[in-house]
Amino acid sequence: MKRILSIFKRDLQNSFRDNLLLYMIIIPIILTIGLKFFIPSTQSASSQFALNEALGNEVIEEFKKYGKVEIYSSNEEISDRVNDIDDIAGITKNEEGNFELILEGNEDYETERIPKMIINDLQGVYLDTVNFEINDIGATTPPIALYGALSIMVTAIMLGGVTTGFNIIDEKESGTIKALSVTPMTKFQFIMGKSFLGLVLPIVHVFIIVWIIGIFTPNSLLLLLMTVVSSLISLLIGFLIGVISNNQISGIANMKGIFVLLSLSVIGAMLLPLDKHIFLYWSPIYWSFMGIKDILLNDVTSTKLLINIGAILALTGIVYLSTKNKIKQGLS
Amino acid sequence: MIKRFLWLTKKDAVTAYRNYYFLIVVALALLFTLLIRFVVPEDTSVKATVFYSTNYSGELRTQLDETIGQSKDTNQNVVSVDSREEIIEKMKENTNSFGMFIKQGDSRPTIEFIFQGYENDQSRNTLIIAMKDSLSGKTAENPKIDTIVLKENISRDMNIPMNKNILPLFLVMEPAMLGFVLIVSLIFMEKEEGTIRAYVITPGKIPEYLASKITVMVVLGIISTLIGSLIVVGFNADYLSLLALVIVSGIFFSALGLILASFFENISQSIIWLIVISIILSLPTVSYFFPSFAPIYIKILPTYSMMFAIREAVFSTGNTGIITSTLITFTVLSIISYLLAIFAYNRSLLRD
Q: What value of ipTM does the predicted structure carry?
């Protein structure tokens, strides 16, 4: 244990020396705070309209019920705004008093349709044949908050592995890994010492992220379990990057390759329909993502949990068995 | 000078090759594009799913069925379920969804919109007005609304399949931006080996030293662009504009990487900043999928206009203005960032 702690202490000192640990601690938190500020603006991302102030308050207020309104004093200004890259509909009135919709020409169908509907409603075109009732199921966490928080959590978990990997490359480059091999320290102790940081930090981060975003889950213990299990694959990847990279330059290249591959599975989990998720089953990060998502949505069952944890452990085991010799050699 | 530059470029290309840069760039381009082509379905959607159920059999039933039926025909995200309870159950599984339950009211049918709870009033009002519109079918008929299209010559509603629509995102995140990360590691390797200090006592100049590295990154970007685009859209793209965009953004992002690297002593110190800046630069992805969402802090990011310009080059609508303006902006940015990089390296060498 003493040897494990001394390795951990040395890594800690190295990381502090380069400010790496400080960055590792604060960056996921800063990203989460950034996400927290980003969420409200995405919530108002319904539609946007550029209105001529001559339309009057009644019309302007009506449009505000449906999206973000920008006021302009002339049709030229509206045209300039409409010509910007984003989708925005310009609304004004012509000399005959008719409403005029100004479009760039490449907007989606809704950008044209929504202002027309609002004008129709203003002019009393719609008949009241149906009553409308509004209710909700009390889910206050928008998808952008959930998926944003999940992405930062996965990033924080993977950062633990990256730091371990780059610490190993550092040991290799400075030759200390060879020096350590002639001490009484076993490989297991070395690995445990190197893994400590990568195991502890993600746990702290995951709970801070949940707290900042305000996703309250009654399954804190399960979240802790899933984070620890997920950190195992991250550490294994970190060790792999460390042993297969002879220097930091190839470390970056290997990290880029592996991380793009893994982030593909996260993007896939967000975008692909469930029946296509079979293409993502190879990735342990996919199972971590889905596992943490279920826990945060309070939609976790014992079967789902067993499947997610079992898949991560099985895939980690497969990667470990197929790379065991390489890692042993690399640490020699 | 040219000879020295060519020699340096050859040396950097060999270093990049030996450290698997070419292999990784080609493998990632192949993987990404094969996934886009063969795994991601064409009809993937980021729009909300609608679960609906009807418990109404009055005189408007046929009209309501027809209205919903039309939506269902054009939108795969409209799903019929058996009861209000099932609507809620399905909504809990899919947070990007809402429900619609049609029932008998006091004198006329009532449509109950069941939301998740996080939606704002504007989104809710829009859904209600859209339902009113669908029920009356009046949108296209109001003669008192004139429509002026500013750019008549550009194509509208390209109907780009969702999987192919991801290609421009890949082209920005990988070929256009790969230099940002990879050039940093090239620089640190040479810093550690002391190559840069040895270089400055030769007749070689810093501008050539940095330009050779940027050139290698741009070549990697071009290879990745060609592999990606040819597999996904074949020859149906404006390759001249596309390559021009990838080249200017490759220069800019590589120079940005060089500037970033000049602030740090080793890769460990810089790696977190590389990750954070990459995440910030990828924020415009949200605006790419939702073009009405364009807050100022996203619009000022260079990747914002680049995403739409590259999309225009890949799926041409005739809106060449965006390509020209992005090319001009990035050319200016590239020159400024390259000059800043030269300044930063001259300064850091003096400091050392």
A: 0.73
Mark whether B90 and B198 lie in a shared domain: no
Nearest CA in chain B to A141: B118
Are residue B119 and residue B175 in the same domain, yes or no?
A: no
User: Which of residues B109, B141, B173 is at a domain's end?
Assistant: B141
* Residue A133 falls inside a structural domain: no
Q: Which of B60, B62, B122 to mutate to test the interface with A (most CBs of A within 10 A)?
A: B122
Would the CB atoms of B276 and A271 count as touching at under 8 Å? no
pLDDT digits (tens, 9 = 90+) for B305-344: 999 999 999 998 888 889 999 999 999 999 999 999 999 9
A59/A190 same-domain check = no
Domain assignment of residue A317, given as a range:
2-39+141-331
With an 8 Å Cβ cutoff, are A104 and B129 in contact? no
Kindly state whether residues B313 and B173 are assigned to the same domain. yes
B76 in contact with A at a CB cutoff of 8 Å? no
Cβ separation B276–A123 shorter than 8 A: no
B21 and A253 in contact by Cβ < 8 A?
yes
What part of B 273-332 touches A (C-beta under 8 Å)? 273, 275-276, 279, 283, 286-287, 290-295, 299, 304-305, 308, 317, 319, 322
Instruction: Mark whether B172 and B117 lie in a shared domain.
Output: no
Interchain proximity A114–B147, CB inside 8 Å:
no
Of the residues A122, A152, A175, the one at which a domain ends: A122
Boundary-marking domain end, from A70, A88, A122: A122
Q: Determine contact: B266 vs chain A, CB below 8 A.
A: yes
Q: Is B206 on the interface with A (CB under 8 A)?
A: no
Interface A:B, Cβ pairs < 8 A: 308
Is B2 in the A-facing interface, judged by CB distances under 8 Å?
no
What pLDDT, in 10s, does the model give residues B90-144?
888 787 889 999 988 777 889 999 998 888 888 889 988 988 888 876 555 666 7
Minimal Cβ distance to A133: which of B108, B112, B283:
B112
3-state SS, chain A, equals CHHHHHHHHHHHHHHHHCCHHHHHHHHHHHHHHHHHHHHHHHHCCCCEEEEEHHHCHHHHHHHHCCCEEEEECCHHHHHHHHCCCCCCEEEEECCCCCEEEEECCCCCHHHHHHHHHHHHHHCCCCCCCCEEEEEEEEECCCHHHHHHHHHHHHHHHHHHHHHHHHHHHHHHHHCHHHHHHCCCCCHHHHHHHHHHHHHHHHHHHHHHHHHHHCCCCCCHHHHHHHHHHHHHHHHHHHHHHHHHCCCHHHHHHHHHHHHHHHHHHHHHHHHCCHHHHHHHCCCHHHHHHHHHHHHHCCCCCHHHHHHHHHHHHHHHHHHHHHHHHHHHHHHC
The pTM (predicted TM-score) of the whole model is 0.76
In a domain, A248, yes or no: yes
